[in-house]
Amino acid sequence: MISASIPDAPVHISSGPVALLLLAAGASTRMGRPKQLLPYHGRTLLRHAAETAVASGCAPIVLVTGALHEELLTEVAGLPIQAVHNADWATGMASSIRAGLGALPETAPAAVLIMLTDQPLVTPQLLRELMARQQQTQAPIVAAAYGDTLGVPAIFAPTMLPELLQLQGQQGAGRLIASLGAAVGRVPFPAGLLDVDTPEDYAALL
């Protein structure tokens, strides 16, 4: 556990705080080098995402590592973030979601927010909007809307956690989001069309 003072009070929905999973287990094969460690605004993409997560007020925050571990731990030093290593990271994102959920306290969170390290235009305000929308509507999932996609970052009600645990292989949260159709709430996030998967994406970001 890496501990430090939390700048914002945890955001409470229903009876407890919202947990956040920050997924950073991939090997960045399309980028050709670890995208989590790419420089962005004087820090790395991972550090930027971690600071965004902390500023959202979520607690606990669980960083899921995989292809890299010690290097990523260094990047979140001083932040109130717990890290868990997903030894099965190569099997796909589903294993990282399971690893993150497994690292949460036994007390069920009010909801779980999932975000990635390769969406640097995500802001604390967007994360808080997702939480507020879920609180107001009690939707099973509230997801970010960009282009024709509903995807992460997204928040999942406790009733959805068993479904997340049942995802397999390369299935990310997007499959579960799509399966619920109109039941999914949405928060507009046009900037979500830019994620950093390739050198061209990174050049566009900069």
TrEMBL record:
InterPro entries: MobA-like_NTP_Trfase, Nucleotide-diphossugar_trans
Cited Pfam families: NTP_transf_3
Domain of life according to the entry: Bacteria
Sequence ranges assigned to domain MobA-like NTP transferase in this UniProt record: 21-180
Protein name: Nucleotidyltransferase family protein
Protein species of origin: Hymenobacter negativus
